[in-house]
Every structure is written in C-alpha cells, then in structure tokens.
Amino acid sequence: MPGIGLKQWFQVSALYAGTVIGAGFASGQEIMQFFIIYGEKGLWGVTLSTILFGLLGLLIMLYTTAAGCNSYAELLPVMMGKKLARAVDWLSLAMLPGGLVVMLAGSGALLNEQFGLPTGAGTLAVAVITILVIMGGLEGVLLTNMILVPLKILTIAFVCLMAIINCGGWPELAQQGQQINHGRNWVWSSVLYVSYNMVVPLAVLSSLGRSVEQKPGILGGVTGGIILGGTAGLVTLAGLLFYPGITSYQIPLLCIAGDLGEIWKHILGLLIWLAILTTAIADAHGFASRVAPKGGTLYRLAGTGVVLLAIPLAGVGFTRLVQVLYPLFGYAGLAVIAGLLTTMFRLKITRGKE
C-alpha cells in the first residue's frame, strides 16, 4: 500500500539520520574537525561522505530486508563471515552501552553548563526518557525519531542558512587556504567520519528487516544519507564564514547561532540535548534488539537494564569517555564499511522477502 510504503520510508530516513546526528554533529564540533578545517576541500569531503552514507544506508537496508534480520548479529555473518562477524559483534555489544554512557554524561555536562542544572539531573533526564521509549518497543523508537529528527535538522538548517544570508552568502573559499589537517587529508578524513558513525546505524537499521518492506527501506537508507550530507554541507558552509574564529569554540554552532541573537544560543543548547537523547535511544535500542531480536519483555528488560547500568558509569566524565571510546567506534566502523562493500560484489541479494 502506498501509504504504508511512504510511512516506512520516512521512518527509516529519520531513524538513520537520528542515529548519526548526535551531540558532536549538532554542536558543529564533528563537522569542524572533519570538514571545515580543510577549507574548500572540506566541501568535497562532505560530498564524498554523502555518497558513502547514501550507499551504505542502501546496502544495510537491502541486506537486512532480503535476509529478514531482527538484529545486527543476524546480518554480520552475511557481510563478513562468521569469524570476523563474531569479533565485530562482541565489540558492538561493548560499544553500544559505551555510547549510551557517553550520551548520559554529555546530557549532564550540557544541562549543567548551559542551564545551571545539576549534572546528575541531566543524566537522569535522558535515562528516564530513554527507558520510557524502550518500553514502547520498536514503534516507540520509530515514533520518537519521526518527531525529533525533523525538528533537529530544521533547526540546524535554519541557523546555518540565516548565518550564511547575514554574512552575505557564499564564503570566500580562497581565503581558507591554511589547513590544520593533523596529518590527514580530506579524503581520509571523510572516510573516517563515515566509519566511526556507522556502528550505531548498522545496529539500529538491521533490526528492521522483518518490519519494513524492501523498497521503502532502501529508499529510506538512501534518503537518510542524503539528509545527513545536506545538513553537514550547510554546517560546513556556515562554518567557513566564521573560520578561523570558530576553532576556539567547543560548540562551534554557538558561534554561528550567536550571530542571530542570544535566544538562539539557548535554542541550540536544547537542540544539542535532543540530539543526545535520540542517540541514547538508538544505543539502547541497538543493544536491546541484539539481546532480544524478537522483542517483547526481554527486549524491554535488556533496554531498561543497560540504561540503569550506564547511569553510574556516566559519572566518569564526558570528555574522558569520548577520548577512550570513540576511537573504537572508528575501527569497528571500518570493518562494517569493508563488509558492506565487499558483500555487494560477493552476493546476489534477491529482491523482496522469501
């Protein structure tokens, strides 16, 4: 039915984009480190990342709907063989709770710095909402992303577009000649960016194999990648207008939003918090769907349990957790990308479900 297909396409697109647009993306820090510092070449990097996000989203949804997967544990052996799949599976089982801990810590830090609330209150707020969403099962996760993800994207796009207009339009890219590339080039930086952002989307999207039809699922994977690239492109363009001053900000988008007025700084703070929330939900759902692929009571218990265990660990501190855990996301992501691309050449995936 056309209505069902349209709804599933939107659900997959929102879920894919929502898992990637976390605190780092919404703050502008990720975009600055991976794209803005390369000047004009950073825009080529965004283009490359958009192509990769779209292609990988397509492949994940193609494989998972063809195989009728309920979790990434069912998809990984198809992609990379049993031995490597087992290693990536165990790494993901550790990383998803790790990512959840980072998001809880990030919520505490943000609400403390931006609004003066106790750190523990910020941590508990995301924990409680995440548990409530998990209790609603897969439908709860999809509904939450359908509401919050468009809100995040529209706000980021509006802030960046208004900043670009206020500054006179397209930046003078020729002035961005000095690159702070830290030994990397823009191509490798783009690949790394996609790499460390693919573990959670794989875990989340691979749980949709039996609930989403193949055609809207594939379209959603492609559209989600395009949305990610388009939003990153707007942030990059706006960031180039404020470069190099933007490099002194821990939250670069605050520099951009400040050009629109003080109220936008508070709106942006709320936006980053929503980004943290949707990523926390994705981490908890990815873990719960791995432990309980069939859903039900075990899924809810696993999701609730991992959130409760993450709360005390969040006290380690946001910055320290990012330094330790995020490199692991990158290494696992490279294995995921390699598996997806090589499977494209190794297998014939039948259209539709058997």
TrEMBL record:
InterPro entries, per the entry: YkvI-like
This protein's record includes keyword Isomerase: no
Record key words, sorted: Membrane, Transmembrane, Transmembrane helix
Membrane spanning stretches: 12-37, 43-66, 87-109, 115-135, 147-166, 186-205, 217-243, 263-286, 298-318, 324-345
Protein name: Uncharacterized membrane protein YkvI
Source organism (scientific name): Desulfofundulus australicus DSM 11792
Phylogenetic classification of the source organism: Bacteria, Bacillati, Bacillota, Clostridia, Eubacteriales
